[in-house]
């Protein structure tokens, strides 16, 4: 298992980023929903309380991204239709989110993304409460989108 931690520094507060993120998710969903064989299908979207990741409360969503029109025709002709859907399950308890990405074609393959947002310079250590063994295998990358 790959354990990678990205510390992404932005010139925004956590609250400013939350507003920007909500806007961009809506905009991207609208853009991707144009054309045949494309779009975002929202299967589930409901609030949860105290039964989410970490015992938190928030909003659960299950989406299917139809990506068939993004795949070259010659590849589409040799793959089953299950290859053209990406599943996203998300537990949004901002400023903590957990998202699981999967593809029905490859049942055992998935990507889990846990995100925590802090108003700092990415200096906090072990924000996910990893064990000493996990910390040994964790790789940390700092990403800076602006000049300090």
Automatic annotation (TrEMBL):
Signal sequence range? none
Instruction: Report the GO terms under cellular component.
Output: cytoplasm
Q: What domain of life does the native source organism fall in?
A: Eukaryota
InterPro entries from the UniProt entry:
PI_transfer, PI_transfer_N, START-like_dom_sf
Question: Which parts of the sequence belong to the Phosphatidylinositol transfer protein N-terminal domain?
Answer: 1-143
Q: Which GO terms describe its molecular function?
A: phosphatidylcholine binding; phosphatidylcholine transporter activity; phosphatidylinositol binding; phosphatidylinositol transfer activity
Mind telling me which Pfam families this protein's record contains?
Answer: IP_trans
Checking PANTHER family in the record gives:
PHOSPHATIDYLINOSITOL TRANSFER PROTEIN (PTHR10658), PROTEIN RETINAL DEGENERATION B (PTHR10658:SF81)
Report what the protein is called. Phosphatidylinositol transfer protein N-terminal domain-containing protein
Q: Which organism is it from?
A: Steinernema carpocapsae (Entomopathogenic nematode)
